[in-house]
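Field: sequence (string)
Field: structure_tokens (string)

Example rows 1 and 2, in order.
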Amino acid sequence: MSKMIRGKLEETGYIIVGEAADGREAVDLTRTEQPDVVLMDIEMPYLNGIEAAAEIQQHCPTPVVILTAYDTPELIIKASEAGIGAYLRKPPHAKELQIAITVAMARFGDLMELDRLNEALRLRNKELQAALDQIKTLKGLLPICAQCKKIRDDEGYWHEVEVYIREHSDADFSHGICPSCLRILYPDFYSGTG
């Protein structure tokens, strides 16, 4: 990092926690120091700034600001794809540097929140799918015989109510006798109970 950029950073209140001579060292330093933001040149030995930024985002996500003498659309696209939050032409003015750092940190915060929300949504969808997998529902009109109470299926076959419902839902049956039927079927028993 040049003395001029170091001076501009310190002048605006930033604390420099480390400096790297190459892209590999920048990635390693980011892992160990865990800075609030990484400011690096695009031209570095071993890994260039874009490659280093991509590796930083993969292993230790951190806001990254890139400094470069180049300003091509291809470079800007590559920088954005690598997760670079802001892009500055050299030499930057102190105010531009401060704005770029603020933008990179805000963009990074938004991306982290989006990742968190996406993960929460993914988990919720998984829970809902599991719940749907457990639910079988009966829908529409059920053609039922008025006399024997059998239900006709879509193929025209008639089934006992219990069989049809068991096959088309997760319901099971237990049998009992309602008071009206108890009076008819067992008049002696019913009259004795009350």
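Row 2 begins here:
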Amino acid sequence: MTSPQLKTFANDWGQRPYRLWLPQEHPPRFLVTGLHGCFMDSQRMALDTRLAELVVNQLGGALLCPQQDRQANEWMGWNWFLPENQKTNGAGETVLLRQLITDTLFQLKISRDRSGLIGISAGSAMATNLAFNCPQLFKCGVFIAGPAFASAQSAEEGLQVMQSGPTSEPTSPPFQLPRALLFHGEKDSVVNTRHLDALQKQWEQSIDPVAAKVVQVETAFSWETQLTTSTNANVFTSHLVKNMAHAWPGGRQGCDFMSPEHEQGMGIILGFFSDSLLPQV
């Protein structure tokens, strides 16, 4: 799949490169924003993961992949741990990304209820920053192998909590968050699996706990947890993926941070975006 040209978006908070994949035969039906992890870039986020194939070719959506600047982070990771990126009124990279997404939705004439989000590792953590800062911008989000929201306030603390798990009670959102799909490998040695528990708690705290219903099942793929409301609306589905390390559940053979043997995860992501972002007939 040919990659589109790398462009640059700029506002008062800085500038970042990005790529935008579009279907060739019709206007895009929805938009998914993909945030890469450390040591990745926009092209790898789209192609190594097979996300462009899934979103654009199979579902007919647009895929927006912003790219971190090495001058902002030498590991090419999003600065999810900086306090200015975690404020509910938004600042720094959060505002930059929010404006890029908003402008892209306007350019493509796509409504916010057709806007989705996905990230891995540092990109997943940055995606939670966006979900907490501007939940109205997204119908749904997929969060893979990432730390819980506001679990660190510096780069040093970020590295510590990635290994140990959150050291304090998870920050509670003052509003309902977008519907979520969570993945974490049970053998992840980079980001502690306790972050999956913390993310579940943060999403649970965003709704009326009296109305919440939790269902847990074990499959050959994962230990799965679903949280629904009293009206059976899905709040989140989480997967602690069996025998998976710090990786994307699926992706291309021979690519870093991909786990092709867990390809079932791609089918779950496909169904999640289809159910959340496409008109139901």
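free_text_note (row 2): The first helix runs from residue 42 to 47.
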